[in-house]
């Protein structure tokens, strides 16, 4: 019997670089500074709350939009941090991670032929979601090595077909953050063009050196046309729980929820209950910048004797580094060599570009125990 012909909807997509590098690290016994997850646990109090929620019967479907307690706590947190009051019933949706929220937001508004502006380097889930919805990615490179937005280039790419602009701040992989002038430029563009915005803010609580995260929710003119997405997995060191959320105006939320209900319907109930209770104390997320800045600074100090050149990191838990003084290999080959020969796994930054732009940069994740960073740095300084 002849098998049916299968034509892939994503013919150019294979295993993600994060999966590939983590597997390579495991095969070669390398220290894994590639994939963005901590090697330490979350707060014991949060684990206790999750266990308590299961014991107390929070084991069935939650409302599709999320448990009321969690949505109310998100609203409270957002108002305290950004001065924006989001209606818990009509504007906040709990999702199975930020990746689901990104897919739902893109699917809700992008139709075949719509153009979506993507600032590169960019997180790898944006383009596949656009492709699957028949959209057209329009790429605008960030400046190098600052990774700032060139708003004139963005303006030049806007057209009558532009449906959506995707922003990410703090930015993965570079660690760059939005500035007040960025928001001003963006507001000026929205006055001339009717596009919508996705603001990927999953690292909102990892901004360093006394700076503040500039959420799009701080600007009413921008909030009224934006899906603002964040992740408790990043904030509370629970990436495997896959609990994120999206804040958007009621009309956008209505369309967003139409997609969400057929993607996951709802997110794990006991985790929602636990996080909702845990959010009653703001200290864990308010002290997160200092927690990760300490790790950033430690890693930078440990790498001083090395031949890596670190790019300034204003946010996230990622550190970019040039390796020109070590090797002439292209980034992907260097990352593989580093994993196999030096025993430290990293992510090549070229994979965040559609055309594999190669600046001889790699990305380290410093969301690791102190001893992990010390062991990795010891190996890296021998190169």
TrEMBL record:
GO MF: transaminase activity
Q: Which InterPro entries match?
A: Aminotransferase_I/II_large, Kynurenine-oxoglutarate_AT, PyrdxlP-dep_Trfase, PyrdxlP-dep_Trfase_major, PyrdxlP-dep_Trfase_small
Q: Do you know which Gene3D superfamilies this protein is assigned to?
A: Aspartate Aminotransferase, domain 1, Type I PLP-dependent aspartate aminotransferase-like (Major domain)
According to its UniProt record, which cofactors does this protein need? pyridoxal 5'-phosphate
The record's section on Pfam families has: Aminotran_1_2
The residues covered by the Aminotransferase class I/classII large domain are 31-380
Q: Which UniProt keywords apply?
A: Aminotransferase, Pyridoxal phosphate, Transferase
Q: What is the protein name for this chain?
A: Pyridoxal phosphate-dependent aminotransferase
Native source species:
Rufibacter roseus
Tell me the lineage of the source organism: Bacteria, Pseudomonadati, Bacteroidota, Cytophagia, Cytophagales
């Amino acid at each position: 019997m002849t098998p049916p012909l299968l034509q892939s909807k994503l013919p150019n997509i294979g295993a993600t670089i994060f999966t590939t590098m983590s597997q390579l690290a495991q095969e070669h016994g390398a220290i894994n500074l590639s994939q963005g997850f901590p090697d330490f646990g979350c707060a014991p109090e949060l684990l206790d709350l999750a266990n308590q929620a299961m014991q107390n019967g929070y084991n069935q479907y939650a409302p599709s939009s999320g448990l009321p307690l969690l949505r109310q706590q998100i609203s409270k947190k957002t108002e305290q941090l950004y001065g924006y009051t989001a209606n818990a019933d009509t504007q906040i949706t709990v999702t199975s991670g930020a990746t689901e929220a990104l897919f739902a937001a893109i699917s809700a508004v992008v139709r075949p032929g719509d153009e979506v502006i993507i600032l590169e380097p960019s997180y790898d889930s944006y383009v596949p979601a656009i492709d699957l919805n028949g959209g057209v990615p329009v790429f605008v490179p960030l400046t190098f090595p600052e990774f700032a937005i060139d708003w004139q280039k963005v303006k030049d790419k806007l057209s009558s077909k532009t449906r959506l602009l995707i922003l990410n701040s703090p930015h993965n992989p570079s660690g760059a953050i939005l500035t007040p002038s960025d928001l001003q430029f963006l507001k000026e563009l929205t006055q001339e063009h009717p596009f919508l915005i996705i603001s990927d803010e999953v690292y909102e609580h990892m901004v360093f050196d006394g700076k503040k995260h500039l959420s799009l929710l701080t600007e009413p003119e921008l909030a009224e046309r934006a899906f603002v997405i964040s992740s408790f997995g990043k904030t509370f060191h629970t990436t495997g729980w896959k609990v994120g959320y999206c804040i958007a105006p009621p009309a956008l939320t209505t369309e967003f929820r139409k997609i969400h209900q057929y993607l996951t319907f709802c997110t794990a109930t006991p985790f929602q209950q636990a996080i909702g209770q845990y959010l009653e104390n703001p200290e864990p997320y308010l002290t997160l910048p200092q927690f990760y800045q300490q790790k950033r600074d430690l890693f930078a100090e440990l790498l001083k004797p090395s031949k890596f050149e670190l790019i300034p990191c204003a946010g996230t838990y990622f550190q970019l580094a040039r390796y020109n003084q070590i090797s002439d290999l292209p980034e992907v080959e260097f990352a593989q060599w580093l994993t196999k020969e030096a025993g430290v796994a990293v992510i090549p930054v070229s994979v965040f570009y559609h055309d594999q732009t190669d600046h001889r940069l790699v990305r380290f994740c410093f969301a690791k125990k102190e001893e992990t960073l010390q062991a990795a740095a010891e190996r890296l300084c021998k190169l």
